[in-house]
Amino acid sequence: MKERVVILGSGESGTGAAILAKAKGYDVFVSDQGQIKDKYKAELQLHEIPFEEGVHTYEAITNADLVIKSPGIPDKAEVIKRVKASNISIIDEIEFAYRYANGSKIIAITGTNGKTTTTLLTYHLLKSAGFDVALAGNVGFSMARQVGDKKYDWYILELSSFQLDGTETFRPDIGILLNITPDHLDRYEYTMQNYVNSKFQLIDNMSAQEEFIYYADDAIINNEISSRPIVPKKIPVSLKADAVAPVKYDGQQMVFNFKEKFFIAQSETTLKGPHNLINTMAAVSAVYFAGVNVKAIREGLKTFKNAPHRLESVGVIKGVEFINDSKATNVDSVIYALGSYEKNLIWIAGGVDKGNDYKLIESEVQKKVKTLICLGKDNEKLKRAFGGIVPVVKETQSVKELVRMALEVAQQGDVVLLSPACASFDLFKNYEDRGNQFRNAVQELKKEIEG
């Protein structure tokens, strides 16, 4: 009799896991409490995989030999409690895919901020150097789908803490931990250590032959490293010129001190800002250990295009540059954005506040921001925080009006920076929608003015 695998959730992760499970000969069933998107429904039908939507039928779930759950489903969900009560093993799609990725190598990247940029850059550097490589996890197609399609030599995975929570035997060849700041604490019983433990699950199964690249200036990471046994080779990355680290920024350029020593200036890359020095140093270190030569690394760095909504230049009008950093939904991300520019800033912020402590960016705002434009339904907290610091504070709920407003107060050489520090759900579907509307509004105005 075939082993029964039940998949909870039918997004890219769940559908990919279902297709792989079916290909491996399991009896597969997909259950989603929400509505299944048409494209995934069509795929499940094509592969003759039974499914249900809008409901979890517990009798059809608790007779499984294995449950693969979407990382978005919390442990406190009733369906998970029922599965656990039935003593059924629950894993994540990443763990399931890993069990069938025999012989392939993995670079896995986690951290609170900067994961996507570092993952995309690592993938690009390997791909442009001619490696057989797939992009998966939180970006690209699910790992399970790609393991099912064909066997790649390398998988580059962006992993959230939720995905790491569902791993058991998962073991990357190279692990990258960029930073840890408070986030998603509602999933971790509002206990920071639980969240930290989740991130460190990245290296739980790694051996002494593998590399663990981490940002050494992060106090939380540093504290963990000094208090827990670390088995893989430690490769600290630092922004401090005097750091005793094989990878650091000496104030002028990035220094890589491996079997060979080489230097890369940030101006030789397409990324700006101190946070992108960290991301670049981590990605370059990873691909160097994967076997990419320094010449190919330099070439790859020149041609990298980052994902949209991350310090994305969306147009220049009358000498004023407009930057879309809509992905910056917390204060930590805004710190990076403000640190990326020396010029006068017109800063656009606002939305659904996630408990922000604006004191963290007060001095940078005071130094650089000449006008704050609040984009949100409730801007009182922002106005209270910066009303006495920024010379001009305006507000609007219209993106088109916002772009005109920004251009009116800007002078040639200024930068208009959309880096909201807040979630987008008061006025937009998500941060992508906010960023896309901003980009479109800038390009429309540019067309109108320049013809």
TrEMBL record:
Localization (cell): Cytoplasm
Enzyme Commission number(s) of this protein: 6.3.2.9
Residue positions binding ATP: G111, T112, N113, G114, K115, T116, T117
Major location (coarse): cytoplasm
Alphabetical list of Pfam families matching this protein: Mur_ligase_C (PF02875), Mur_ligase_M (PF08245), MurD_N (PF21377)
GO terms, molecular function: UDP-N-acetylmuramoylalanine-D-glutamate ligase activity
Classification via SUPFAM superfamilies: MurCD N-terminal domain, MurD-like peptide ligases, catalytic domain, MurD-like peptide ligases, peptide-binding domain
Catalysed reaction, written as an equation: UDP-N-acetyl-alpha-D-muramoyl-L-alanine + D-glutamate + ATP = UDP-N-acetyl-alpha-D-muramoyl-L-alanyl-D-glutamate + ADP + phosphate + H(+)
Protein name (Swiss-Prot/TrEMBL): UDP-N-acetylmuramoylalanine--D-glutamate ligase
Organism: Chryseosolibacter indicus
Gene transcribed to yield this protein: murD
